[in-house]
# Entry
Amino acid sequence: MGNTQQEIFEEIITSDDVINSCKVILFNDDWHTFDEVIAQLMKATGISYQKAEALTLEVHEKGKACVYDGELSECLRVSSILEEIALYTQIEY
# Structure
């Protein structure tokens, strides 16, 4: 079927290129609990429980939120971990 988000970016970006200022956007859904999202955010980004809880609330209230920013390779890693439990993410740059 289709390529994963990471495969698409790897096709576009060569190993010599470094992209800064990328963002991982997390979207709200109706099937994950707050605790599941908080735990996955902590796992993916290393942030504190309080920060993960605040981001989860922002995603819930606004429909989406930037949960991480940094280089493309790190954004891909964070996005991949969030998607392990079928959270929906998007990388913006």
In short: The radius of gyration is 13 Å. The domain at 5-92 is CATH 3.30.1390.10 (Ribosomal Protein L30; Chain: A,). Helices lie at 5-12, 34-45, 49-62, 72-83. The longest helix spans residues 49-62.
